[in-house]
Amino acid sequence: PHQLEGLCSFLQLSSCPEHLLVRFCSWLLALSPDLSFASAVTLAEQLFLARVLALTQPPSRHLMAALTSFCSKYARPLCRVLVAQILREPAGAPEQTKLVCELVEECLEPEHVRLVLSQVLEAPLSERVLPLVQAVLARQEELPAELLELLVLALCRQAPALAASLPFAQLVTALLTAYPSHVS
Fold first, then answer.
1. Cβ contacts of 31 within 8 Å, gap of 6 or more
2. pTM higher than 0.85, yes or no?
3. Top-tier CATH class for 1-179
4. How does pLDDT run across 135-165, given as a tens digit for each residue?
5. Residue ranges of the Fanconi Anaemia group E protein C-terminal domain (predicted)?
């Protein structure tokens, strides 16, 4: 990973034009054997992290195409890098959350959707991440009982702080609709 960081820095991949980023990701997908988890994490950081954290408006179609392409083969490393960092940003832009919601809704396999939810539940729920949980529930994937229990507990803990929040009410309604037997 350290050598790969050096190579990425030398090639200035973190600042390359986004249309070239799409080409680079296509090239990465053709590599055989697949990248290791650590190498994929390093590339996700170098290629996407700064771009996503700098978003102040919806991402370009080139950036979304590159993310979708990378995600098709290296979703776990991408989730580990992007979701974790976005959740750490206390005042992140709504575009970052929307981007991850779009990945959840359109690109991720069920196992990676569960990974995103588990990452969200590791941090205190805030109004900013409620759309992310809503996107997970909208996928209508069967969630493990332990994740559902953690979600219900997190919602109960945050209920007083988010009582006047419409997204919170929508999320609770979605949870009650999708998993009525898990909520008492």
1. none
2. no
3. mainly alpha
4. 998 888 888 889 888 988 888 888 888 888 8
5. 1-182
